[in-house]
Amino acid sequence: MGFFQVGFVSVYLSDALLSGFVTGASFTVLTSQAKYLLGLSLPRTHGVGSLITTWIHIFRNIHKTNLCDLITSLLCFLVLLPTKELNEHFKSRLKAPIPIELIVVVAATMASHFGKLQEKYNSSVAGHIPTGFLPPEAPDWSLVPTVAVDAIAISIIGFATTVSLSEMFAKKHGYTVRANQEMYAIGFCNIIPSFFHCITTSAALAKTLVKESTGCQTQVSAVMTALVLLLVLLVIAPLFYSLQKCVLGVITIVNLRGALHKFRDLPSMWRVSRMDTLIWFVTMLSSALISTEIGLLIGVCFSMFCVILRTQKPKVSLLGLVEESELFESLSAYKNLQTKPGIKIVRFIAPLYYINKECFKSALYKNTLNPVLVKAAQKKVAKRKLKEQRITLGVQDDVSVQLSHDPLELHTVVIDCSAIPFLDTAGIHTLKEVRRDYEAIGIQLLLAQCNPSVRDSLTRGQYCKEEEQNLLFYSVYEAVAFAVEYEKGTCVLNGLRRSSD
């Protein structure tokens, strides 16, 4: 994925989606650690609905809670939470944060060892940790056909998880993330260790939060972690035999508080964008209640659906001229704007494509007039007048009678295309249809401020003839001025003609 530079897929992971995903995944991590806090021995659940299944197992076996583990967990919470808050509150004054996790681990290990908590109270401890390394060997290539399909899913989920975490911390600490570089990193972190019996590698939410909350900022922290792990694997591992598992569970849960604090941002998010808040909730709930992998997929799909929904029913507004300027703004948003009689200026704020073409037509006709209904009404009136004329003249045979329609007050409709980023074929056909309907009742349709992409689409779609290219105006002010002169009957087509290049 890194070689083919497909890091652009990360743009589909919005801030609301990433925040909801991390929060939902935090509930999954918290649930996986809850049994250790109570000292319960439960089977580990996987797949869809694992969070609900785990809590069902916990409540069914809650009467088996180990009081020693529960008391230890509460004591660890009482020590860790205040100290972490002090670290956060005085981080500008402290040269280095208090290593409270290390202190708690050492103290708890010593208390468990000398207090013989496992022997006396059957407390759950880390137990024997094997030391040393297995000899390296080449992967078994015969397994490739079996794991190939799963490898694709694992790579995509691993990349999405890594990028979501990195984007979250990049936003918090003010730096940027290059998605393609992350792909190379994940790839090499899986290719090289595959010769050393390592499992699939990706970013880990709980461990990343632990590192971030303890003040780690550079790769030096990773080097130190690797050295400590090396010492553990070779020498120190037996010393952690008596460490209670509930202590590690408490450390993990305490460091999830940053992700869980995102609930406090929901009121402000709701005030800014209800759609983003909905994306946050859908992603969070699906990631927590279904699974992190499916939850992320649901979040991406729902986020893209919301984008389509926003463009399906976009905002359409009538414009007026700002006094003593050449600017046009929305009549509903600003006061004291000037309008020209017989001219309606409409701004459509969305791409014009197959999904919203009907919305575009209905909104345009609603804010101006419906030429189809006007034409039908004119035909009805003409038939009635023709019938009255025949009766008055006593004409029995078909005759050609010229009847003039009453002139409409509206003579020009100007569409401000500055907020239309692109057109598709359906959008071009819609503009042609709208123009034809307006011209049928004597109203001209002018387009203004079309960007180069829209102009190219109109040219390729043959929206207008070569001699009519000057009716695509570069500003709304020019289009309005042309319409005023055109109504007076003194106008010469003088719009700016686009260069042939």
UniProtKB/TrEMBL annotation:
Q: Residues in domain STAS?
A: 333-483
Protein name as it appears in the record: Sulfate transporter
Q: What is the topology of this protein in the membrane according to its UniProt annotation?
A: Multi-pass membrane protein
Primary gene name? SLC26A2
Q: Which GO terms describe its biological process?
A: sulfate transmembrane transport
Which reaction does this enzyme catalyse, per its entry? iodide(in) + chloride(out) = iodide(out) + chloride(in); bromide(in) + chloride(out) = bromide(out) + chloride(in); oxalate(out) + 2 chloride(in) = oxalate(in) + 2 chloride(out); sulfate(out) + 2 chloride(in) = sulfate(in) + 2 chloride(out)
Q: What is its main location?
A: membrane
- Pfam families, alphabetized: STAS (PF01740), Sulfate_transp (PF00916)
User: What family does this chain come from, according to its entry?
Assistant: Belongs to the SLC26A/SulP transporter (TC 2.A.53) family.
- This protein's source sits in the domain of life called Eukaryota
Q: Which organism is it from?
A: Chinchilla lanigera (Long-tailed chinchilla)
Q: Where are the transmembrane segments?
A: 6-30, 143-163, 184-206, 226-256, 277-305
Report the locations given in the UniProt record.
Apical cell membrane
Gene Ontology CC annotation, any one = apical plasma membrane
User: What keywords appear on the UniProt entry?
Assistant: Cell membrane, Glycoprotein, Membrane, Phosphoprotein, Transmembrane, Transmembrane helix, Transport
